[in-house]
Amino acid sequence: MNIMEMIDFTKITACGECCAGCKKKENGLCEGCIESDGHCKEWAESGQCPIHKCAREHGVQFCGLCSKFPCGELTKKIHWNPNIVEHLTKLANGYWVKDILKDKNLALIGFADLSEIDADLRYGFKYGICIAMVLEVFPSVAEPSMEYYNEYRRLNRELRNISNFLADAIKERGLNAYSLAGERQNEDFRTQLPFKTLATRAGVGWIGKSAALITKQFGNAIRLNGVLTDMPLETETPINSSLCGDCEECVKHCPGKAITGNSWSINADRNDLLNAQECKKTVIERGKIFDLTEGTCGICLTVCPWTKKYMNQKENKK
Ligand code: SF4
Ligand code: SF4
Ligand code: SF4
What we know:
The protein is of the alpha+beta class. The protein folds into two domains: 9-94, no CATH class; 104-317, no CATH class. 34% of the residues lie in helices and 9% in strands. The protein has eleven helices and six strands. It has helices spanning 23-26, 50-57, 72-77, 84-100, 146-172, 195-201, 249-253, 270-273, 276-287, 299-303, 305-317, and strands at residues 108-113, 127-134, 177-179, 206-207, 213-214, 222-229. It has a four-stranded antiparallel β-sheet, sandwiched between helices. β4 and β5 (213-214) form a beta hairpin. The structure holds iron/sulfur cluster (3 copies). One iron/sulfur cluster binds next to α9 and α10.
């Protein structure tokens, strides 16, 4: 599976801008730096953007990936941006992360600025990298299934391994990183920094009425993990509000009546949305036939319209 790019690096210009969304381009006033091969109107008089030309001669998409970065020519030509080296360094770090994870079968990778979260909760790290894999097997509403339980365990295991791999790779570059793979839940089924908090800060999705992370691309059919780091990254715009709207599918179908029906907002506590003790009781009750205590419900996942949309798309592609 191709990783869904949160930052699409193919749209990043040589100097680290992104023409996508530019009003001049949208209104047909400019072709775009990449599309015009550096001959856009801004550079009409001189022929071609010297940074674009130089980047192409050096065989790189943008300057942060060049062996000569940061060269004097770059800072001289892009004199209007005092943060150009910092910006291109962040982009290059993100590019590196996506490159080393490209064969890991991830569905989503998002970069988060965590500075608004209490420093103790994020172990003092400013940046977070959220990773997600998508389920191939979905929970059945009728009864628990070993197939789903095995899938749930497989994704959790693979994501833990990838988080540890990524944290080690960052440390090998001389930067600091902390894998969240080893975090354990307390007696109230909470971790210090929930993956879903990291995911909302990384623009990956919102927290549904079911208290699970919901994405536009895959609904709730994902598992998450992550890494905290001091490696500077260009981060995504956080998601601060729910797209659940009037939907109550998870509320209606939850066999444990554990979902309150409240909508998530940025200051909401997990308990405002979900009675985690009742959810756990239901999971254990449903798991009795297999003697399991996790991965035996997930009905809220299957009935979510965002998950159904993904499942239908997947079915139609067959
Ligand atoms: S970093 Fe300097 S040498 Fe490398 S592509 Fe950019 S402008 Fe050219
Ligand atoms: S996992 Fe099951 S019991 Fe828990 S909230 Fe979802 S539907 Fe309810
Ligand atoms: S089922 Fe509906 S209310 Fe529940 S998480 Fe999905 S969209 Fe939100």
